[in-house]
C-alpha cells in the first residue's frame, strides 16, 4: 500500500506533467479556442518564475500551488478532448526542461507594481 508521501509525490509529478501538457495545448491548433485561452493563462501563471502570493507568506503563500494551479489545470483538461489531452500528456513527459513563462512573470510583476502604487496612493492620502 502506498504511503501518503508516495501519493503526494505522484500527485506533484502529475501536476508538473499537466502544466507542461497545457502549455503545449495552448500552442496546439487542435485545442478548442476557449481551452487555448484558459490554458495560456494557467500555463503562464504556473510557469512564471515568481508567484502572485510569495511562498514565504504563511498559509496563503502555498495557496496558489495547492489550489489555484490545480483547479486551473482541471478546468483546462475538462475543455480539451480526451484523446488530444492524452497525446499532449505523452508529449509533456518527453519535454526535458520545464519551460518558463516570461509573460507570466511580466503579469505577476505588473500586478505587484499596481498593488504597490495603490498602497502608496492610499498611504499618502491618509497623511
TrEMBL record:
Keywords: Membrane, Transmembrane, Transmembrane helix. GO terms for cellular component: endomembrane system. The chain crosses the membrane at residues 59-80, 100-121. Its main location: membrane. It is a multi-pass membrane protein. It holds the Pfam family DUF1232. Residues 35-71 form the DUF1232 domain. InterPro entries: DUF1232. It is found in: Endomembrane system. It comes from the Bacteria. This is Membrane protein.
Amino acid at each position: 500500500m502506498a504511503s501518503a508521501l508516495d501519493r503526494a509525490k505522484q500527485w506533484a509529478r502529475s501536476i508538473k506533467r499537466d502544466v507542461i501538457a497545457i502549455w503545449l495545448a495552448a500552442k496546439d491548433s487542435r485545442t478548442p479556442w476557449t481551452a487555448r485561452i484558459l490554458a495560456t493563462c494557467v500555463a503562464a501563471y504556473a510557469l512564471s518564475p515568481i508567484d502572485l502570493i510569495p511562498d514565504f507568506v504563511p498559509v496563503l503563500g502555498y495557496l496558489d500551488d495547492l489550489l489555484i494551479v490545480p483547479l486551473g489545470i482541471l478546468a483546462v483538461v475538462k475543455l480539451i478532448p480526451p484523446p488530444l489531452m492524452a497525446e499532449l500528456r505523452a508529449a509533456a513527459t518527453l519535454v526535458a526542461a520545464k519551460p518558463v513563462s516570461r509573460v507570466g512573470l511580466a503579469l505577476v510583476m505588473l500586478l505587484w507594481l499596481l498593488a504597490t502604487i495603490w498602497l502608496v496612493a492610499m498611504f499618502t492620502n491618509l497623511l
